[in-house]
Design brief:
The chain is mostly helical.
Length: 137
């Protein structure tokens, strides 16, 4: 295996984060898609299930990026941004209607930590990759 094809430690961390995001997307997306928004008017339930479908669709995207990590850099930043926007949406919900309690604090922490880890690790991996190309083997 040559230097260029090795996965650096930062990329392995990115893969783990992406697979964690995929698992969260499958569980949360499927749960919300199948349950909808009980007691809500049809237009609210429809929008809720539509967004749940988008949430669920993040899973195959993040798995694909994790598996083919050497081919992606900018896309990892966009995924991190998407998770961060989701976290900001949760914060806004807490501000508007209150904190739901329970595991939602854990979700919120993960939704802020994962994007930071993705961005830092992608930055490190890009620098390491650039350095390995510039140095003769």
């Amino acid at each position: 295996m040559n230097q260029k094809s090795k996965i650096v430690a930062a990329q392995r961390v990115i893969q783990i984060c992406l697979l964690l995001i995929a698992a969260i997307s499958v569980w949360g997306g499927w749960y919300q898609l199948s349950n909808g928004q009980p007691g809500a008017p049809p237009n609210v339930d429809s929008n809720h299930r539509f967004m749940a479908g988008l949430y669920l669709s993040m899973a195959p995207l993040t798995v694909w990026v994790a598996v083919s990590i050497r081919q992606h850099s900018t896309l990892i930043y966009f995924i991190a941004l998407s998770v961060l926007f989701a976290a900001l949406g949760r914060v806004y919900s807490i501000y508007e209607v209150g904190h739901p309690g329970g595991a939602y604090t854990t979700y919120l922490i993960a939704e802020f930590v994962l994007p930071v880890v993705l961005v830092v690790c992608q930055f490190v991996a890009s620098r390491q990759h650039r350095g390995s190309i510039e140095q003769p083997i």
